[in-house]
Design brief:
The protein is of the alpha/beta class and 252 residues long. The chain contains ten helices and nine strands. The protein folds into two domains: 154 residues, Rossmann fold; 87 residues, SIR2/SIRT2 'Small Domain' (2-Layer Sandwich), CATH 3.30.1600. It binds nicotinamide-adenine-dinucleotide (NAD).
Length: 252
Amino acid sequence: MVIAFDTIQNAAELIHNAKHTVAFTGAGISTPSGIPDFRSPASGMWEQVDPMAVASLHGFRQNPQQFYDWVRPLAQLTLTALPNPAHLALATLEHKGKLQGIITQNIDMLHHRAGNKHVYELHGHLREATCLRCYKVVPAPPMIEQFLVDGYVPKCECGGILKPNVILFGEQLPYKELQGSQEAARKCDLMIIIGSSLEVAPASDLPLLAKRGGAKLLIVNLEPTMLDRIADVVIHADAAITLPAILERLEM
Ligand code: NAD
């Protein structure tokens, strides 16, 4: 894959000139870590199921076994996945004071593992799970490991069903994360959108919020998105190649 030198240069200039940069990331930033996204043609995660049936709060309450069976490959990969060069480039940018925060739709915790400190996890994470009966919060990894071994729906000591702290369809976004993300979107003068189809609302409204506040938009995504026409620089390429290339250009 060849990325035009001019585009990398333009992207690096945007970051160089910005005073407050925020990244907005989606599942595409983690595909080079081996975690499939939802909407790429070959990913297949939505192909055999009705998302509203399995990945909604209502669906979970009706049939948690179906949810856990569907999420099994994603959960398994998330336990072992490592940050890729795109995550690491964002961590370096934050370390150098050129990135003030990340708003992520991902639940895989790879931005934290890469070393970023200012991360809003809009759709939750697989770090913890909550009992739907007594609301006790427990660490999720041991529960997921057990499920991967025995295939039974994870239960709390009280007998209630444990739900990972990920946001399902029909659930409200976590208030503090949403507030923080909106503030970050309003405050930034550059938003870098990476690996998101921008089809999941209300998260997908955040780049528009940034744009309305006067921020420039840089999009790095394999496929076209609905915001390409209002973005300042658009790169249709692999984030794990593009972000290190931009970083290298910035450092020159
Ligand atoms: P999406 O699946 O709707 O879109 C992913 C986009 O990333 C696509 O447009 C694709 O072209 C692009 N892409 C794929 N690989 C790429 C790469 N290497 N470099 C650049 N672009 C690439 O993802 P979304 O917009 O995040 O929405 C999906 C929802 O699914 C989110 O709510 C997210 O929480 C959830 N999800 C999360 C994970 C994860 O945590 N890793 C994985 C799957 C789904």
